[in-house]
Amino acid sequence: MITVAVTAVVLIYLGLRGILPLRVSVPCKLALFALAGLILSKTIIGHFLYNSWTPEFPLPIHATWSLLQCALLALALLGAITDVFRLLRRLLRRKAPAAARPGLPPVLLLISLLLAALGTHAALRVPSVTPVEIVVPGLPAAWDGLTVAQLSDVHASKTFPGNWLAGVVDAVNAARPDLIVITGDLFDGSPRQRFDDLRPLRRLRAPLGVYACPGNHEYYSGLTAWRPRFSSLGILLLENDHVLLRRNGAELILAGLNDDVAERFSLPRPDIRQALGSTEASLPLILMAHRPHLVEQLKQLSRPGAALQLSGHTHGGQVFGLDLLVRRVNKGYLRGLYEIGPVRLYISTGTALWSGFPLRLGVPSEIPLITLRSPHARQQSQD
After folding, report:
1. Could you give the maximum distance between any two Cα atoms of the chain, in Å?
2. How far apart, in whole angstroms, are the C-alpha atoms of residue 9 and residue 103?
3. CB 366 within 8 A of CB 348
4. What is the pLDDT of residue 377?
5. Cα torsion at 315, 107, 75, 15 (round to 10°)?
6. Cα–Cα distance measured from residue 223 to residue 208, given in angstroms and rounded to the nearest whole number
7. DSSP for 361-377?
8. Mean pLDDT of all residues in 205-225
C-alpha cells in the first residue's frame, strides 16, 4: 500500500507541475503521463508479473528502468523542495504567495538524471573491504587481533547475480579474515530462483569458518526450503543457536538470533537465552542479529564477558537525508559503531540492498573487516 500511495502522489505531482504546463498537444501530454506512470510503477508491475516485491527483470532492463524511476522520484523531490522554498521566501517577504510558476525548471531534470546515475552505479558496484577496529571491553588477550569479515544484506537476485557475488567473495578472501559472518538478508527468492547465484559462496575461506543468521528476507523467501542448502554452500546457519570457537587455547561464543518477522511464519522469535543455552557467561560473545535493536536482549543479560553484536538491516539509510527516517523506524540505530555500556554494536551499511530500490547516495555499501581489540592488549601496545 505504501508503494502504491507513493507512486500515486509522485505521479500526480509530476503530472500537475511537470507535464501539464508543457507547450505540447494534449495527446503528447497524455503519452508523457502514461510513460511516467509506467516508469514509476516498476515495483508494482514486477509484483504482479512475478508475485514478488523483488523484481525479476533481466539486469539490463531492471538497471535502466530503476535509473529512470529514481530520476523521476528525485525530480519530484527536488521540485517539491523548490516549490516550498519559493513559498517560504514569499511569506518571509510578507507578500501574498504567487501562483506556482509554469513547469519545473529544466535544470532539475538534468540534476535528477545525474543523481540517479551516480546513485545506481554506487548501489550496483562490488563494495570494497572497509577496515574497522573495535575495542571490546573485557575481551581476553587470546582473542585480540581476531579479524571478522561481515557480509550483510547481500540480497542475491537478478540485480545482484552470481558474477557480482563472485566479486564479493574474491574481495573477502583477499582480506584473509579469521572468521566470516553473514548477518541476514542473503537472498531474495526461492532456492530454484537463487541457488545458482549463491554458488560462489562455496569459495569463502576462513580458518574459523563461515556462519550466518537469518534476516527478514530469508523468511520471505521460504527459510524452511532454504535450510538444507546452507550446508551445501559451506555455511552454518545459526537460528537462536551458537557454536564455540577456539583460538590460542581460549573459547569464544558465536551466536545467531532469529529475526522478528519469524512469528509471522509460525517460527520461533529471536531469543538470546535460547541462543546461548548453558554457555559460560564469562566467555566472550559475538552475536549475529540482523536487526540492530535486538541488542536490547543482549543488554538485559548483564553478562560479565565481552560482548559484540554485528547487525545490518538498515542499509545505513541508503540515501543521505532518508537516513533520518530509517533511524527513526529502527529505534535510533542506523550504521557504524555504537557503545552501549560494556556492549559494542556494529551495524553494516550492507554489502548490497533490496533490488526494488537500488540507489545509494552518500551512504556507500561496504564489506567490514572488523579487528577485535582487547583494552589490555591495546594499552600495552601504546605503552
Report:
1. 79
2. 17
3. yes
4. 66
5. -170
6. 25
7. BB----EEEEEEE-HHH
8. 97
Between 136 and 95, where is the model more confident? 136
Which three cell numbers mark 263?
512469528
pTM of the complete model: 0.94
User: What DSSP line would sit under 217-264, residue for residue?
Assistant: HHHHT-HHHHHHHHHHTT-EE-SSEEEEEEETTEEEEEEEPPPGGGGG
Cα(353)–Cα(55) distance, rounded to whole angstroms? 13
Q: Which carries the bigger pLDDT value, residue 213 or residue 52? A: 213
Work out whether strand 307-311 and strand 179-183 pair parallel, antiparallel, or are unpaired: unpaired
- Residue 304: all three cell numbers together: 560479565
SS3 214: coil
Q: What percent of the chain has pLDDT over 70?
A: 96
Q: Give CA–CA dist 227/307, Å, rounded.
A: 27
Residue 36: its H or E element: helix 26-40
The closest alpha carbon to 365, from 68, 115, 121, 54, belongs to: 121
Residues 128-135, mean pLDDT to the nearest whole number: 97
Q: Report how far residue 216's alpha carbon sits from residue 289's, in angstroms, rounded to the nearest whole number.
A: 11
pLDDT band for 99, please (50, 70, 90 cuts): low
Q: What is the reported pLDDT for 342? A: 93
Helix and strand numbers, DSSP H then E, in the chain = 13, 12
Name which of 118-122, 300-304, 330-334 the model is least confident about: 300-304
**CA-CA distance, 261 to 263, in Å (whole number)?**
5
Residue found by looking up cell 539486469 in the block:
59
E strands, the chain, are: 129-135, 147-151, 179-183, 210-213, 236-237, 241-247, 250-256, 285-288, 307-311, 336-340, 343-347, 367-373
| CA atoms of 314 and 196, how far apart (whole Å) | 26
Determine the distance from the C-alpha atom of residue 250 to the mean position of all C-alpha atoms in its chain, rounded to a whole number: 33
Report in angstroms the alpha-carbon separations of 304 from 256, 328, 342, 344. 19, 31, 9, 13
Average pLDDT across the chain, whole number? 94
First to last CA, the chain: 59
Neighbouring CB atoms inside 10 A of 281's CB total: 13
Task: Output 243 or 87, whichever has higher pLDDT.
Answer: 243
pLDDT at 225: 97
Q: At what angle do helices 42-50 and 26-40 cross, to 10 degrees?
A: 60
